[in-house]
Design goal:
Radius of gyration: 23 Å
Order of helices and strands: HHHHHHHHHHHHHH
Oligomer: single chain
Strand content: under 5%
Distance between the termini: 55 Å
Shape: elongated
Helix content: over 70%
Largest sheet: none
Number of strands: 0
Length: 275
């Protein structure tokens, strides 16, 4: 019965009927609690994920903790690890890094012991971001590299590109611009492979930023123009305008001949944006 109610809740959520979906999720919890079956832990987790998807993180924490407690009572290590992982991610999103670290460490210990590679990768990724948030950037990069290794091994290009981007950002924070560019470019290669154009545009802009920090204004502008072009193609005109404005602010750092070429391209972009 609880399974059927949960299925209906998912359908309502997919239809955008969030109030009705929430009522069904709560109804599923009430039904599962009456039976105290093994499905109760999964139900708590599902409801937590619902609240996470819609930005109600305090409510999400409540249900993840209920899920963790239930699974621990039942001796279900896999379920407890999944609940702990979601607690880690939620606390990470809230900027509560100590709590995130505590639950992330709990999750990854179980995943490693049980040789659950996907779990290890996801928990390592989360812990990497936790340590970067705590300004222990080198330690964070170590965890991100562990996650990247598994994602590459599993052929998960989406996840690998995301980790590479974050490794690049970490090196950027360390002011190691060359390594930042190296990882941005690796991420970009994967993003182009999977066809994620908007994230590609963001990355190309970040590569431009990095070249700007190195004083290579020509490469900075070239990458900005590439990013703006993608944003125009993808219909994100506001992002394109912001880049164009930034290019215009840096025009006088270019040679006269390069500036003339760039100005011509900017006029073409502006014409496209006015259409």
């Amino acid at each position: 019965m609880a399974e059927e109610i949960l299925r209906k809740a998912r359908e309502l959520e997919e239809e955008g009927l969030l109030d009705e979906a929430e009522e069904k999720y709560v109804e599923a919890v009430n039904e599962a609690e009456r039976g105290r079956s093994d499905f109760l832990g999964e139900t708590y987790l599902e409801v937590g994920l619902f609240y996470t998807r819609h930005g109600e993180l305090e409510k999400a924490l409540e249900f993840y903790k209920k899920s963790l407690s239930f699974y621990e009572e039942r001796g279900n290590e896999d379920g407890a690890a999944d609940a702990a992982y979601n607690l880690c991610v939620t606390y990470l999103e809230m900027g509560e890094y100590d709590e995130a670290e505590k639950y992330g460490a709990k999750a990854i210990e179980t995943y490693r012991r049980k040789k659950l590679k996907e779990g290890v990768a996801d928990a390592a990724y989360a812990l990497g971001l936790v340590y970067i948030g705590k300004a222990d950037i080198e330690k964070g990069i170590g965890y991100l590299q562990e996650a990247l290794s598994i994602y590459n091994e599993e052929g998960n290009d989406d996840a690998a590109s995301s980790v590479l981007l974050d490794i690049g950002e970490a090196h950027y924070r360390l002011e190691d611009v060359d390594k930042a560019i190296e990882h941005y470019q690796k991420a970009l290669k994967l993003l182009e492979k999977v066809g994620d154009k908007l994230t590609s545009a963001y990355l190309i802009k970040r590569i431009g930023d990095a070249y700007g920090d190195k004083g290579d204004m020509r490469r900075m502008i070239d990458n900005y123009l590439k990013a703006a072009h993608i944003y125009v193609e993808e219909g994100d005109r506001e992002a394109a305008r912001e880049i164009i404005e930034e290019i215009e602010e840096n025009l006088w750092d270019l040679t006269r001949s390069t500036r003339r070429t760039v100005v011509k391209k900017l006029e073409e972009f502006k014409a496209l944006l006015e259409e």
